[in-house]
Design goal:
Its main location: membrane. The chain has five helices and no strands. It is mostly helical.
C-alpha cells in the first residue's frame, strides 16, 4: 500500500495547488447546480429557496475546508485577485489560478448538466 501511495503522490507543490483549485471549483458547481436543477425539476414542491441557499453554503464550506490547506480554497478569480493584491499570490499564479478556476467551473457545470440532461 505504501508503495502505491508513493507512486501516485504528486511531488510538484504548484501542480497540487492547481489541481486542488480545479477539483474544488468543479465540485462546488456540481453540487450547487445539482441543488438548483433538483429545485427546478420538482417544480418547487420538494425544496424551498432557503434549501438552495443552505445547500450552496454547505457546498462552499465543504470545498473550502477540503482545499484550504493545499491551495487556500479560493474557487473564484475574484478571491484569487484579492490574494494577489494582498501579496499572498504571485501574478503568474493569479493568472493560472483564474484559468484553472474557470476550467473547473466549466467542468463541474458540464457534469451537472450531463447528470440531468435527460430531464430537460
Amino acid at each position: 500500500m505504501d508503495r502505491c501511495r508513493t507512486c501516485l503522490q504528486i511531488k510538484n507543490e504548484r501542480l497540487v495547488r492547481f489541481l486542488s483549485e480545479f477539483f474544488a471549483t468543479a465540485l462546488l458547481l456540481f453540487i450547487g447546480l445539482g441543488i438548483v436543477f433538483q429545485f427546478i425539476l420538482t417544480h418547487e414542491k420538494m425544496n424551498a429557496w432557503i434549501n438552495i441557499n443552505i445547500g450552496w453554503g454547505f457546498a462552499l464550506m465543504f470545498c473550502i475546508y477540503a482545499t484550504s490547506q493545499t491551495s487556500g480554497g479560493h474557487m473564484n478569480p475574484a478571491v484569487s485577485f484579492l490574494m494577489y493584491t494582498l501579496g499572498n499570490l504571485s501574478l503568474a499564479d493569479f493568472f493560472i489560478y483564474s484559468i484553472i478556476q474557470v476550467a473547473g467551473a466549466f467542468f463541474g457545470a458540464s457534469l451537472a448538466y450531463g447528470v440531468y440532461y435527460g430531464n430537460f
